[in-house]
Amino acid sequence: VGPFFRSWSGVDARGRLIFRSPPTTVSRPVLDANGAPTGVFSMSTQNGDSANILRFDMDARRIDTLGAIQQVAGGFRVVQGRDGRDQNYLTVNPLRSIDDWSVLSDGTLAIVRGHDYHVDWILPNGSAAASAKLPFDWRRLTDDEKQKLIDSAKIAEAKRFPPVNPNTPAAFAGAGGGANRDGGSGRSGGGGEADGRPQAPPPLITEYVPLKEMADYYPPIRAGALMPDLDGNVWVLPTTSAQSRQGELVYDVINPRDGLQKRVRLPLGRSIVGFGRRGVVYLSAGSMTQGFTLEKVSLPPRP
């Protein structure tokens, strides 16, 4: 699935690997207007609406399902044309309510639910618990704001996958490195040669969901919003916060015992890069032009 699928993993206190189930790859025939097979196939790497969080015990050689999360459906697909070449498509929805998860320092699994912003916990002993709904500054989006998000997503995707001039050597990087479906004629879209000439990879076509399929409110979290510290807490960065005065990052610090412990507003221009024990947080400050510095701060103990 290449760069179109990313997943995080963790290890609990007993050395068991915790990870998200991968997307499925489906190959379907393409039919013509009359429903007859065209001889062309569409291959899709699709995220379903949900995914399982799995735990692998390497000693017992056993995989258990700990829970399920909601995720962004759709994804990357490849459609083979009548000429035998492939066309790549990517579906993007920049505003979708999802769940996110993390493994705490003691092996507890934390799943933050995006639809109502609460945390489900799977404890190391196998028992389950849930926190109360967390406070969140829900904000409704207009169609104009949704369109701006689409426009921003287009700019971001253009930077991730810039257009390749088919006449430059970079366009042929990796050409000939993949197996060809036609036994070596090079008609596969992954490079190779056709009639003795190298074939550039096909461009990626990015499709965006209609505005009506986007959520009407900012979801509480986005992918990658969770960070576990070394004291048994999970730090969650909500998408919006009224406590952010000038754009500072504001984190919710939550644990299985007490729920929401505190909200931490970072100094302006700082981001978290790691944790130490007993409330130690490492921050990054600076810029790409001036360089970065590492700062160590200690949070005051909870009263």
Choose one word for the global shape: globular
Q: If you average the pLDDT, what whole number results?
A: 77
Helix-strand sequence = EEEEEEEEEEEEHEEEEEEEEEE
Percent strand: 35-45%
**Looking at the chains present, what oligomeric state does this protein adopt?**
single chain
Gyration radius from CA atoms, angstroms: 23 Å
Structure report:
By secondary structure, the chain is mainly beta. The chain has one helix spanning 143-160; strands at 9-11, 17-20, 24-31, 37-47, 50-57, 62-70, 74-80, 86-92, 100-103, 109-113, 118-122, 128-130, 193-194, 197-198, 204-208, 226-228, 234-236, 250-255, 259-265, 270-275, 280-287, 291-298. The strands form 6 sheets. A 5-stranded mixed sheet has the order 3-4-7-8-15. Strand 11 and strand 12 form a beta hairpin. The protein is globular.
Summary keywords:
303 residues; disordered N terminus; 22 strands; four-stranded antiparallel β-sheet; mainly beta; single chain
Give a quick precis of the structure.
The chain has 303 residues and is mainly beta. The chain is built from one helix and 22 strands.
List the helices and strands and how they pair.
Elements lengths: L8 E3 L5 E4 L3 E8 L5 E11 L2 E8 L4 E9 L3 E7 L5 E7 L7 E4 L5 E5 L4 E5 L5 E3 L12 H18 L32 E2 L2 E2 L5 E5 L17 E3 L5 E3 L13 E6 L3 E7 L4 E6 L4 E8 L3 E8 L5
Parallel strand pairs: 8-15
Antiparallel strand pairs: 1-2, 2-5, 3-4, 4-7, 5-6, 7-8, 9-10, 10-11, 11-12, 13-14, 16-17, 17-18, 18-19, 20-21, 21-22
